[in-house]
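User: Could you write out the 3D structure of this protein bound to fe (ii) ion? I've included everything you need below.
Assistant: Certainly. Input first, then the structure.
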Amino acid sequence: MPQIAAYEDMKAQKTQRQTPTGTAWRTNFISADEHNAATPVAFLVEGTEGRVIKPHFHENDQYQVIVHGNGVMGKHDLSVNAVHFTKGYTPYGPIIFGDQQMGFLTLRAHKDPGAQYLDEPEKLAKLKSIANRNPWQATELPKFTPVTDGAAVNAFTDIKGDAGLASFAMTVAANGRAMAPDPALTNGQYLIITRGSLIYQGKEYCALSVAFVTPEEGAFEVVAGADGVDALVLHFPRTWSTSTATTTTTTVQAKGAPGTRVWECMLCAFVYDEAKGMPDEGVAPGTPWEDVPEDWICPDCSTGKSEFQMRVVN
Ligand SMILES: [Fe+2]
């Protein structure tokens, strides 16, 4: 039976603590079974303006969904409904909470030992020691299509891959019903109610609510309340180590003339293509790596230039 929890029911257990950079809150939605690693965990993280979560990685694949406020992750802007997917052993951050504060869900299909910070030498060494690591991350805003009848399901275009990795923005009309995408060939599925409400077993689950469906449970029937429902449908890939979601390797000639080479972050796989430059950061197309400022940091994981290597095409 799918696990489901509404913020309204869970907020009484919200915990608060002080961090060096601000106040932090955590609200558990779904708690992993201590004795079974293959159980999901879902919780809401909130923080005051300026709170910083340092660059880190987790061992398990993870979704994050911004549910209120704003902030940044690395150099990427985060806004309401943004979905970030991070494969296991992919560093990201820092996460900086913005001026409207920020709340984001953290969603995993498996229990995880927690954040492992890059500024701890043993954790960085551990990350580098993992064989067959396949770092990859992406952020994408969902596209919900309003409907007055029936349902609409829009697949994400960036957060997708093999081994079942996929995400969808699903809208069901007022008092309508529709089957969500089937999680059978995934490592599990989250449904996040971001607007309206879902009726399940006679109870109304309003936004914000979180459900987890195992691959064995089959497609979940979304029954909408009187205002309809918007739901994010988030599929985990069956295994991170064999997924080829990152094999977008271009065949750009890497050897040779400055201005045509490709450099890759050895921690998170961010790619700097000299031919394209990084116009958003004031680095013009054709800028050789040597001319990128020495204090430049990776947009995805905040590491320095020293962790980059030139990609060599054989
Ligand atoms: Fe990086």
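The first strand starts at residue 3 and ends at 6.
User: Perfect, thank you.
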